[in-house]
Amino acid sequence: MNNHPVARIYRSVAFGLSSLRLIPHLILWRFSPNRDVIMQDVRRWREAFLGHLSVGSDVEAFLVLMASLPEYRTLFYFRIGSLATPVKFLCPVMESLILVCPKLGPGLIIQHGIATVIVAEEIGANCWINQQVTLGISGSLPGFPTLGDNVRVSVGAKVLGGITVGSNSMIGANAVVMKNVPPNVTVVGVPGYIVRRDGVRVNEPL
């Protein structure tokens, strides 16, 4: 039934009408100083989430992402800044997702984003953050976290205080990390400890 010609026409018309609300967003993207970074975001999200769809161009991928993923909208509006305020009502953000970071690299993926707090000093390129994650301040450890490039923070993890997570490292699900993490490691547990370094299984404290 979904492949019936009438169904295909209906989906095309519905998508076209939905896309009208995105015209102001396309204009903001076109003239944003961050347009190249936004392009890198779109391409990474497209690869991660839209591979099963016949998406013909980066613009079409952008339209699909804005129409369907409030997590992506939150990131897009962050890139655009205050100029996005008049159009946010057209594509609402995910209200349970908080994103504050003065230096945010390209290609950040926020998967699901439910109950996620991202308050960081700096996040490098191509990082991946899952739902129910907290990056933020600790009462006993001042400052905000810094993530290197290609860092993944898994479901429910907490990364707290002015610490650094090195590039290519992974923070496992529900881990609590309050110490610096070297590059190329996997950290799990409460408190966090290293279980993999450069692809080799280990058991090391942070």
TrEMBL record:
Top-level taxon of the source organism? Bacteria
InterPro entries named in the record: Hexapep, LbH_SAT, Trimer_LpxA-like_sf
Any Pfam family matching the protein: Hexapep
Q: Which UniProt keywords apply?
A: Acyltransferase, Transferase
Record-stated family: Belongs to the transferase hexapeptide repeat family.
Provide the protein name.
Answer: Serine acetyltransferase
